[in-house]
Amino acid sequence: MTPPDAHVPDPVILEKTATRRMVWVDVARVIACILIIANHMAFYSAELYRWIWAEFLAARTPFFLLAAGYFVGRGAFGPLDGSLFLWKRSWFLFRPYLVWGLAAAVLIGWSTLHEYYASYQPMYAWLKGEPGSGFWPALAAFGRALGIAGHPVDAPMWFLRDIIIYTAVAPLLHRLGNYLLWVGIIMLSLNYFALDLADHDYPIANSLGFFLLGMYISRYSLPFLTESVRRYAVPFLLATLALTWWLVGHREQHNSMLIALGMLGLMSLAILFTEWFPRAAKWVAGLAPACFFIFGTHYIVIILLRESGWITWRGEAWDVLWLCLVPVIFALLAGLFFCMKRFAPRLVPLLGAYGK
């Protein structure tokens, strides 16, 4: 039974943004997108990387999994009753996933700076005709590059692969009913082991757990959930920031409960920002349609940037440059998306998973 819509503070209202979601949801998407870029840009500073990987910021991809589960559960992409699969939505997401996976394989998979370079090397060895290289190892490496039993060559796309799979089988997951919560909690409790053993080579337990949790809470309206988080937003945010500070020196701590708290902190930040700065929030929310395009392209840009060799700064100097490069990369890619949206709109669904 869905509870009645709770009263939501006036600035936090359900408006028709570009994505037809509440403003704060799109603000959270943009914040999470920037954090993802920041994580992949933190390669020249061990101390900076420790900060970026603290649980508050590690909540970036789980937020997208939770949101995907919620909107799928609300029937935003098709009815869940009376069908087995959501093929249309899954295909819509799979096309740009495939495009950027192939683009990354061509542009950066060969780079020794890529974290998973060794995984794809048999494919490039076979293409070069190197002695001892074989077709079947090359084919397996190609599959790994696209996220089949391996980490996608376009590194941040692992969670999109998971979302595509979970969305496709969402009608089957929907049949769990109230057990969605219990199964989700069990999956989240396996997070530590799943991360250690799989490293995103396969859809892992915690990604399924957050998606199932999103499907479970889809029985509640978005205004109701917004007010529920808003009521405790300041304590959530303060607790998460304090926990982040502590985790910087205690990186052995890693579990789904910490990430869940970080996700509540991220949502609280977006809600408070929307309430306190409504005009700025609407402007930020207007950038949300570009997020998928930025997911698909930013890692390619970062690897090519590293391959160029022009970045020679280290230590504190790199930290300053990092602070500048993260928003610059986001702004340039967002600008490219909106130019494409205006001048080549037919490419937007294929490259940015936006529109129809």
Automatic annotation (TrEMBL):
Q: Name one Pfam family in it.
A: Acyl_transf_3
The alphabetized list of GO BP terms reads: enterobacterial common antigen biosynthetic process
Spans traversing the lipid bilayer: 23-45, 51-72, 92-113, 163-190, 202-220, 232-248, 254-273, 285-305, 320-340
> Key word Transmembrane helix present in the record?
yes
Entry GO terms, CC: plasma membrane
Q: Which locations, inside or outside the cell, does it occupy?
A: Cell membrane
Determine if Kinase is one of this entry's keywords: no
Sorted UniProt keywords: Cell membrane, Membrane, Transmembrane, Transmembrane helix
Tell me the protein family, please.
Belongs to the acyltransferase 3 family.
Q: What is this protein called?
A: Acyltransferase 3 domain-containing protein
